[in-house]
């Protein structure tokens, strides 16, 4: 990352062309750059229609210009936004003009957000939530990201850290002023009971990490079964487009294909796999190996069988939820269906609504639509687990000196601080902010 004293600029809106393009400028020379482009700095936080001109006074565009004096800005620095027309030539001309102003440079990926973090405007959880909000494609992803970007999750973690700090303060008070009357109560009665309660709260919180992962990354559903059971046809029907090649030739599907669906506001990732059977054909055997591998990591398996077939091997009871689906219902209406959880026809659409309902029920079982102050990233979960380990250690060490137990609580608090960035996390910053696009 480049020097923080530089004034930076970038296109902060979406791809071009567009109706409106927002060019953001942040840093100590932002207002000087604004004056160079439009002749003045408009009143703070009031949109003003002004003309952008080049250094030779050539007209570039008419734009709405806003100024945000620091620290009351997104980055905490002086900021300017130019809301100009979103034509490629217009934006490129404005950016070229900014490039010619001394002391200005184009922003690195995520640099505006990084400055907001460094200036105390956002913590790391809020920054990551902002990145997820920009990338959100489903309603539940939006809600999860909004909870984190607005500070809801940070407030929870900081509240836990404050309780740990208070516990350490009480322990130190008992150690230093054990003979004084103004030390409130005993550590055993006032602190360790709260630490046991805190450990329980953190355990319940971690139990919901899987829900956060599924909302953010999607429930993993694998379509499996023998050749010609209708797997690729189901995949195409769910996608409402031709994703997989469909033929009557067994073994047509050789690789694992996937699509993402928005189902009831949840992201669902569905995989089509090679037909399961014994074969000596080398490429098909590799496809089957890949199919079995992706099935091992599935959250739900849709095992398809053509209604009336009897030679299909039963699925292993490996703990992965499964739906046994009879296919080609339009051809086999008079045959028994008791071997299947439900039957469908992708040709007529029969059973498809029930199938989608079953899938949605499964998603909601993993990730109920309630409070979304839950961990959604591996980084959060790992630090929460380490923090909880030290709390358990302090609670279990009843025969150990109080100062050693207080040290375990300090370490527990430090891992909570690593989640929000309240302690040293410099080695994480480049990774986190690299997820952002230029201009954010």
Overview of this structure, please?
There is one protein chain. The strands form two sheets. The chain has a six-stranded mixed β-sheet with strand order 3-4-5-2-1-6. A hairpin with a 5-residue loop joins strand 3 and strand 4 (59-68). The protein folds into three domains: 7-122, Gyrase A, domain 2; 129-208 and 374-421, tRNA modification GTPase MnmE domain 2 (Four Helix Bundle (Hemerythrin (Met), subunit A)), CATH 1.20.120.430; 217-366, Rossmann fold (3-Layer(aba) Sandwich). The protein has helices at 30-38, 88-99, 111-118, 124-135, 139-149, 152-176, 187-190, 192-207, 209-217, 231-239, 282-296, 352-366, 378-396, 402-420, 426-433; strands spanning 7-11, 18-26, 48-53, 59-68, 79-86, 104-106, 219-224, 257-263, 266-272, 300-306, 322-327, 342-343. Helix content is 43%, strand content 17%. By secondary structure, the chain is of the alpha/beta class. Helix 6 (152-176) runs antiparallel to helix 14 (402-420), helix 8 packs antiparallel against helix 13 (378-396) and helix 13 packs antiparallel against helix 14. It has 15 helices and twelve strands. The longest helix is centred in the middle third of the chain and has 25 residues, at 152-176.
